[in-house]
Automatic annotation (TrEMBL):
This is Elongation factor G. Residues 433-550 form the Translation elongation factor EFG/EF2 domain. The lineage of its organism: Bacteria, Pseudomonadati, Pseudomonadota, Alphaproteobacteria, Hyphomicrobiales. It comes from the Bacteria. Residues 552-642 form the Elongation factor EFG domain.
Length: 653
């Protein structure tokens, strides 16, 4: 079986492309994953094929990346509008990082919204590989009625519901065809000395030799050929499928590529797991592509026995099924197989770094509808995060509630639907509050005496403490300068412990940071003093001193790296400024052509607004990662509102 992925932005007709390719020579068999990955099995040219139709939203990019892990080649569907080329930038980025041979297909050419050359030029801004036209459109007025193949120099007229008709190249297209063909041959000659010599000698190379060169450079991932068509009318589908059949590499090339990327012995690499999901009453289903022979139910894979092998289309298990090299199959009761991963018979190997999804930007607290679902929710989210690497599951620091980090609102909605439909857990969500702290603005001193008389021995401790602000980031410090044994040495650790305990909650209701405490005097009683008494005296004394130290609210500030196509960089300064952030600068992204990395300091309370503004400003393409940097003071009405909200019932911090 040969396998390819079809990917690209939403509304570019990917699913229609797969449907038309699958029906060129008979009926196809389709299966779907809850995560939006569709698999279509079909036959073409006496060969078995599997098309992986990756979900279009940018929030599902992780599933497209994992599909590439199992693909011999891919088709990138793009719009015929030049201004929409930027929407393909994330896909070009992952395709090039994965080193997957790619054919770019400009779809919906029956409704062109710009010149083809402008579309290619706009896309080239995001591709290190040369985008090389293999066809040009034939126009009749404002309509595109056919295409001309630049290698065979044959023209075809589209016919609705029928195969295209061979025609002579129209005079109106002859000059453009000659120009585009010359450009094609010039680029191909960069990878073939024989062709370069033919061109220098002004000899016309035969078509079969050019097809062979084109096939080789695609298999070697040297260029990205560009084909055109309109899948909804079936236009260009046969040519696209023939290009895949003759030019896409076999499964052995994928095996070599993965072994090299994963630093695995190629002879031991048996399979690759690339997708998984949970089904009601079935459990975890893992999609696997065989890269060698000998796999069957019960065989050793990934260090344990392979579970039941299922047909993709009908989900039926058959213990007699022996997947051949290249076959894609589903397996259940193989929970030991992580996704994605490279698999040998006795080991699981981590996938290449390029499969890492973008950092999740949307953080939400999930609240189960009933108490009995609380433990179940935690276990279920752990299962789901193991099958969806775009999802991160944490616990809110202050409450221990389930905190999920999703790629965006669509991703979050799909997660909640899966929890409800498959696991019968109804949840609501809320925005988590930033983790605020407080400190003091001025030093103070306190004299606190703890005295308590009970029926037996009493409690007595007397401490004199000075409290002062520390420099930012130093945290809590404790020192002592007592003399003459007024506070015995064995009680001083208890004084420090009491001071630390007082820092857990300050006058504003938050944890106190960056404060120094010094014990400089005190008294003790030979009978009634104890560690507990001095700990209590210290805690109460420090609390009193904090209330006199002009408490100041501290907000978290994060260092953010924002990844965006360069055309959007100009808008970020305004976005960051509006969020009261600080611009640190930006650089070209050396790993992705046409992208910038924009650095800024953003208040923690503005991160959710940053995610929304970034999605709006970049059409959902931009994303950011964050790391905690420091706490800084927050004053005025904003600080007062946060303190009042924190004092409200049931509000977490």
């Amino acid at each position: 079986m040969r396998c390819f992925t079809v990917l690209g932005p939403s509304q570019t007709g990917k699913s229609t492309v797969v449907e038309k390719l699958g029906s060129l020579e008979g009926a196809a068999r389709k299966s779907s994953s809850p995560y939006g990955l569709n698999l279509t099995e079909f036959t073409f040219g006496n060969e078995s094929w599997c098309a992986l139709d990756a979900p279009g939203p940018n929030e599902a990019l992780a599933h497209a990346q994992h599909a590439l892990l199992a693909s011999d080649a891919c088709i990138l569907c793009v719009s015929s509008a030049p201004e929409e080329a930027v929407l393909a930038a994330p896909y070009l980025r992952v395709i090039e990082a994965s080193e997957t041979p790619c054919i770019l297909f400009v779809n919906r050419m029956d409704e062109p919204r710009g010149r083809l050359r402008d579309v290619i030029a706009a896309l080239q801004d995001y591709a290190n590989h040369t985008l090389l036209l293999r066809q040009i459109p034939i126009r009749e007025g404002d309509r595109i009625i056919g295409s001309c193949d630049l290698i065979s120099e044959r023209a075809w007229r589209y016919r609705e519901g029928q195969t295209s008709a061979l025609i002579a190249i129209p005079e109106s297209a002859a000059e453009r065809e000659h120009e585009a063909r010359s450009e094609l041959l010039e680029h191909l000659s960069e990878f073939d000395d024989w062709l370069l010599e033919e061109l220098i000698e002004d000899r016309e190379p035969p078509s079969d030799a050019l097809y062979a060169i084109s096939s080789r450079v695609l298999r070697e991932n040297r260029i990205i050929p560009v084909l055109i068509g309109a899948a909804s009318h079936g236009n260009g589908m046969m040519r696209l499928m023939k290009a895949l059949r003759h030019e896409a590499p076999p499964v052995g090339v994928l095996r070599q590529r993965l072994a090299r990327a994963g630093n695995v012995d190629e002879n031991k690499l048996t399979a690759v797991s690339f997708h998984a999901y949970h089904r009601q009453n079935v459990g975890k289903t893992v999609l696997v592509r065989a890269l060698g022979v000998g796999l069957r139910q019960g065989a050793s894979l990934g260090g344990s026995s392979l579970g039941a092998v299922q047909h993709l289309a009908n989900g039926r298990s058959n213990s007699a099924v022996v997947p051949a090299s290249g076959d894609v199959f589903a397996t259940v009761k193989s929970d030991h197989l992580p996704v994605p991963s490279l698999l040998t018979s006795d080991a699981v190997v981590a996938p290449p770094e390029w499969t890492e999804p973008p950092t999740p930007m949307l953080e939400r607290i999930l609240i189960p509808g009933s108490e009995r679902d609380e433990n179940k929710l935690s276990e279920t989210l752990a299962k789901l995060s193991a099958t969806d690497r775009g999802l991160t599951v944490l616990q809110e620091e202050s409450t221990g509630a389930q905190l999920v980090c999703a790629q965006g609102p669509v991703h979050l909605r799909d997660l909640c639907r899966t929890l409800s439909d498959v696991f019968h857990i109804a949840v609501t969500d809320r925005t988590p509050s930033p983790i605020y702290r407080e400190t003091i603005a001025k030093p103070s001193e306190v004299h606190y005496r703890h005295r308590k008389q009970t029926g037996g021995a009493g409690q007595f401790a007397d401490v004199k403490l000075s409290i002062r602000p520390n420099e930012r980031g130093r945290g809590f410090t404790f020192s002592e300068t007592v003399k003459g044994g007024v506070v015995p040495r064995n009680y001083i650790p208890a004084v420090e412990a009491g001071a630390r305990e007082a820092m857990e909650k300050g006058p504003l209701g938050f944890q106190v940071i960056d404060v120094g405490v010094t014990l400089y005097d005190g008294q003790h009683h030979a009978v009634d003093s104890s560690e507990h008494a001095f700990r209590t005296a210290s805690k109460m004394g420090v609390r009193q001193a904090l209330s006199e130290g002009s408490a100041v609210l501290m907000q978290p500030v994060f260092r953010s790296e924002i990844h965006i196509p360069s055309i959007y960089s100009g808008s970020l300064v305004q976005i960051v400024s509006a969020l009261k952030g600080q611009v640190l600068g930006f650089d070209r992204d050396e790993t992705a052509k046409g992208w910038d990395i924009f650095r800024a300091l953003i208040p923690g309370g503005a991160l959710d607004d940053l995610a929304r503004a970034l999605r709006s400003a970049t059409q959902g393409i931009g994303y950011f990662s964050k790391t905690f940097d420091h706490f800084e003071e927050l004053y005025g009405k904003e600080a007062d509102a946060i303190v009042r909200a924190h004092e409200g019932p049931g509000v977490a911090h």
